[in-house]
Design goal:
The chain is α/β, with parallel strands linked by helices. The chain is 35% helix and 25% strand. The protein folds into three domains: 13-98 and 149-246, P-loop containing nucleotide triphosphate hydrolases (Rossmann fold), CATH 3.40.50.300; 248-340 and 425-510, Rossmann fold (3-Layer(aba) Sandwich); 348-424, no CATH class. Helix 13 packs across helix 14 and helix 13 runs parallel beside helix 15 (409-421). The protein starts with 12 loop residues before the first strand and ends with a helix.
Length: 510
């Protein structure tokens, strides 16, 4: 159903026809939302769907281009977070804002410190902070430095601060994304407590099982538009994904195994035999042009370290590597790039991209040699390279001049791919290529990977998502404890066979 057409009469906070554009790109287009007291209302969608933008507008961090906001039926204009807080609207951001250099009590009552005779009443500050901390189930000394707290405790301190403002509507943006399982359950139980106290709780999350279990109502946004709103009981995980990405979940992994005729029987372009390196005790593999080789295993099994050794980011101390029939001993990553081997690292924000630089600068950075003639740079060559990958990879941005940090996770990953593809690699190393991006962006990245293999690029892909490996790879090599412990053909590979190899040491000990 559409909330724009029939908002609930009991709504505490309503957004009607909200639109917002950034640099010509629509972040929200005529979106309406109605939040009821005593309900957990989940807001879901892909990265870039408009969830965070809508929450920031309603909590005073952004202003809408058009649209109306109603609180208890009266029009309001929260122009900044302080005004929104005064109206009883608050948000707990994914990036916490706890000030580590001051005490827990100072964080809980920031800008609301009790005073007596014009001076800070430290005793009252401690007592009031303790009361609010107890409301969130946090039994700590309010005088402790906030820097001593765990991430979960910092999050609870931030919630205590919001409760001290008597917030009636609270947005939680990915509240459990960085928490261990037990802390996540504790936080979600707190959301239920807030709901039962009459608070309108908004849960923004990519964790669909979490959404289905804890939300009363779910709203789906896609590409800045409202798609549907319904009771959580009306959704399954599959139907929710379909609403989010506009197609069936089966399209996500594109069947079982990438098909490249003859790739597995070709002469390998890269061979690794019994190499040792930091974090790698003994690893062997080979990959041919047009083939996707998956590397499976548990976290800490040596997969990332193996890619680092192949790419020259760490030095192999033993064994043999050959590339295109010649010894491969890269002294540093630039040597690997020059020879035709490229890496998209797991931590794209800190290792693969410069977030403050433009999209075009990031793409051009690794291929400056191709943009120059002798000592002279040829800007037009760079422009052509950027325009090509901007189009081929379907990077969603108003202009290549925008900073990469302004893009969604999926589009950042496309820029990271474009950056290395501009070097014209013959072997592409991918470390967790879909980590931190939403389901629709994952499908786009999978499409790109298959297309690159079809063009003859040899791909080695590390992934902790088994369906991803099974859906993409021609073969899968499994690592355990720094060693390659087995290889599975596409016909042999399934979740059970991969996990048996990954856990083989523990299983054989029973």
């Amino acid at each position: 159903m559409s909330l724009a057409a029939a908002p609930p009469r009991t709504a505490m906070l309503e957004a009607r026809g909200i639109s917002k554009h950034y640099a010509g790109v629509a972040a929200l287009e005529n979106v309406s939302l109605a939040l009821e007291p005593g309900k957990i209302h989940a807001l879901v969608g892909e990265n870039g769907a408009g969830k965070s933008t809508l929450s920031k507008i309603l909590s005073g961090f952004e202003s809408a281009d058009t649209g109306t906001i109603l609180l208890d039926g009266e029009q309001v204009h929260p122009r900044n977070p302080t005004q929104a807080a005064g109206l009883g609207i608050a948000i707990v951001h994914q990036e916490l804002s706890v000030i580590g250099s001051v005490s827990v009590a100072d964080n809980v009552l920031v800008n609301a410190e009790p005073s007596r005779w014009g001076f800070l009443d430290r005793r009252a500050l401690i007592e009031q902070a303790k009361t609010h901390l107890e409301r969130v189930g946090l039994d700590i000394d309010p005088r402790r430095p906030a820097s001593d707290l765990s991430i979960a405790e910092q999050q609870l301190v931030e919630i205590a601060r919001i409760l001290s403002l008597n917030a009636r509507v609270v947005f939680f943006d990915e509240p459990t994304s960085s928490l261990p399982h037990d802390d996540s359950l504790r936080l979600l139980a707190l959301l239920r407590d807030l709901r039962d106290q009459g608070t309108a709780v908004v849960l923004i999350s990519h964790d669909l099982p979490e959404v289905l279990e804890y939300a009363d109502t779910i709203t789906v946004l896609r590409d800045g538009s409202h798609i549907t709103t319904a009771s959580a009981a009306e959704f399954t995980e599959e139907s929710l994904i379909k609403q989010m990405i506009g197609r069936d979940i089966d399209a996500l992994y594109h069947g079982h195994g990438h098909e490249t005729v003859g790739a597995e029987t070709q002469t390998p372009i890269l061979s690794v035999e019994n190499i040792t390196a930091p974090g790698v005790l003994s690893a062997s593999l080979h990959v041919s042009p047009g083939e996707i080789l998956g590397i499976g295993g548990l976290v800490g099994s040596g997969r990332t370290e193996l890619l680092a050794a192949i790419f020259g980011a760490s030095r192999a101390t033993g064994g043999i590597m050959t590339f295109d029939g010649k010894p491969h001993k890269p002294a540093h990553p630039h040597a690997a790039l020059a020879s035709g081997i490229a890496l998209v690292p797991e931590d794209r924000k800190n290792q693969g991209l410069h977030l403050g630089m433009s999209i075009s600068s990031n793409i051009e950075l690794a291929s400056l040699d191709d943009m120059s003639t002798g000592p002279w740079l040829r800007p037009r060559r760079g422009t052509r390279i950027v325009e090509r990958f901007f189009k081929e990879l379907r990077i969603k941005a108003a202009s290549p001049s925008l900073p990469v940090g302004a893009l969604s996770g999926g589009n950042q990953q496309k820029v990271a791919l474009a950056k290395v593809l501009a070097t014209k690699p013959r072997v592409l190393l991918l470390d967790e290529p879909t980590r931190g991006i939403d389901v629709g962006a994952k499908a786009e990245v999978h499409r790109l990977i298959r297309g690159l293999a079809d063009e003859g690029i040899a791909i080695i892909m590390v992934s902790s998502v088994l369906p991803e490996l099974l859906g993409a790879a021609n073969r899968i090599v499994v690592m355990r404890g720094g060693r390659t412990v087995g290889e599975l053909s596409r016909a042999e590979a399934n979740e059970e066979s991969v996990m048996k190899l990954a856990f083989q040491g523990a299983i054989s000990d029973d």
